[in-house]
Amino acid sequence: MSPAPLRQLVIAGGGTAGWMTAAAATRFLERGWQITLVESDAIGTVGVGEATIPQIRLFNAGLGIDENEFLAATQGSFKLGIEFVDWWQPGQRYMHNFGEVGRALGLVPFHHWWARARAEGQARDFGHYSLNERAARAHRFDRLAGDATLPPLVWAYHFDAGLYAAYLRRRAEARGVVRVEGRIARVEREGETITTLVLDDGRRIAGDLFVDCSGFRSLLIGEALGSGWHDWSHWLPCDRAVAVPCANGGDFTPYTRATARPAGWQWRIPLQHRIGNGHVFSSAHMSEDEATAILMRNLDGEPLAEPRTLAFQAGRRDRVWIGNCYALGLAAGFLEPLESTSIHLIQSGIARLLGLLPGEPAGMAVLAAEANREAAREMEWIRDFIILHYKANQRPDPFWRAAAAMAVPPELAERMALFAATGRIRRDHDELFTDLAWSQVMIGQGLTPATHHPLADGLSAGDLGGFLGLIDRAISGAVTALPGHADFLARHCPAPRKAA
Ligand SMILES: Cc1cc2nc3c(=O)[nH]c(=O)nc-3n(C[C@H](O)[C@H](O)[C@H](O)COP(=O)(O)OP(=O)(O)OC[C@H]3O[C@@H](n4cnc5c(N)ncnc54)[C@H](O)[C@@H]3O)c2cc1C
Question: Which residues form the pocket of ligand 1, taking CB atoms under 6 Å from any ligand atom?
Answer without folding.
Answer: 13-18, 38-40, 43-46, 48-52, 161, 183-184, 213-215, 217, 219, 241, 243, 278, 310, 312, 329-331, 337, 340, 342-343
